[in-house]
Amino acid sequence: MKICFATNNTKKIEEVKAALGSDFEIVSLKEVGCNEELPETGDTLEHNAFQKARYVKENYGVDCFADDTGLEVEALAGAPGVYSGRYAGEPRSDERNIELLLKNMQGLENRKARFRTVIALILDGEEFQFEGIAKGEILEEKVGEGGFGYDPVFCPEGYEKTFAELSLDEKNQISHRGKAVRALIEFLSQRKF
Asked: 20 to 30 Å CA-CA from 105: which of 3, 20, 68, 70?
């Protein structure tokens, strides 16, 4: 089955392709002719995910799914949340986002956090939503070279390694995006085409 993943983030595409396996062919935005930045003006992850998916469906006529992910830190009242990608402002910078997060958490004992991914799917004229959550804590400094975003400072529950230290396969087994993608796969596998 061929389906468009409405993102320009090559690392996300890599993660999702690895999780989906060979039953599904992921088509990128570039492959459907979409080269513009997708709208992302909502104040919730759900709103942003559906906004992106609807944009692709309306403008390019292809069934697709889009995701939005946020890092929600307990001691920061859920921030950066929906603004995770632009936490330190424009242009987007993982490095500056991490620096600001660590600065804002200086001296805080409660390091609990969670990553939450919402996937919006538009298929055969219908809309569906899937979610995945990974709980953990924020370290005081970066550890590891892999992953992207806040991965070097996020240590998942039950692990002594950050997401940035785990292999792609290990990360996909426990990550927020991996869980949301598995829910999507299960749904697509049961769907009659």
From this structure: 68
Answer for the pair 92, 79: CB distance below 8 angstroms, yes or no.
no
What the block records as the tokens of 30 is 């570039």
Model confidence, pTM: 0.89
Report the catalytic residues: 68
Tell me whether residue 29 is exposed, middle or buried, using C-beta atoms within 10 angstroms of its C-beta: 0 to 12, 13 to 18, 19 or more.
buried
User: Contact 56/33 with Cβ under 8 angstroms?
Assistant: no
Q: Is the pLDDT of residue 152 over 70?
A: yes
Q: Where are the domains of the chain?
A: 2-190
Domain 2-190 has CATH 3.30.70.1150: no
Cα separation, 128 vs 117, in Å, equals 14
Q: How far apart are CA 65 and CA 8, in angstroms?
A: 13
